[in-house]
């Protein structure tokens, strides 16, 4: 895709006033609601505007088309995941590998599924709006934060922390995708977090100096 085409999908206008912010939030929430109720095949800007209680013209002030709106929603979701991981990694600098595993896993699951319905809806449209490209930004930020914190582990040193971070993040993302496809609930989310913590801790400890032949 050309740079010109990519730019076309960015929001037209950044909300700076309270009223504008409220309109954008209403539009985004309405998009999720219409997706869940009617499915992506019936998702239109007209239906979104009606659900949000705004005119189609107001919607177009911020998003030139449906695609740009969905991309903005997905980016906001993934930016939140990256931010939660960055904050968590900073908070556990110098901690044990076990503590890092617990904190990072919890932050990922909490951020990824803060709104299960929204996560399901966004996953359904991800492939249609270049979700992989958008996810690269989150992956890069999270990998950088995890790489840095692994180098501060209290009792051991992780070899190749960048590779370990990227591998763990990919593994957690893969599990979350599987859960979305199977139908995640609050109950299964708690189980997933517990099992992921075991996996992350075991991998971190195996990757530490002296644990791999």
Query: Percent of residues in helical segments?
Result: over 70%
Gross CATH architecture of the largest domain: Orthogonal Bundle
CATH topology annotation of the largest domain: Tetracycline Repressor, domain 2
Which CATH class of the largest domain? Mainly Alpha
Quaternary structure of the protein: single chain
Poorly predicted segments: 1-9
From the N-terminal CA to the C-terminal CA, the straight-line distance is 45 Å
The radius of gyration over CA amounts to 19 Å
Overall, the morphology is elongated
CATH superfamily caption of the largest domain: Tetracycline Repressor, domain 2
Structural class: mainly alpha
Question: What report would you give on this structure?
Answer:
With 213 residues, this protein is mainly α. It folds into two domains: 15-64, Homeodomain-like (Arc Repressor Mutant, subunit A), CATH 1.10.10.60; 67-207, Tetracycline Repressor, domain 2. The chain has ten helices and no strands. The protein has helices spanning 3-8, 18-38, 45-52, 56-62, 66-91, 97-112, 116-126, 131-150, 161-182, 186-207. Helix 6 runs antiparallel to helix 10 (186-207).
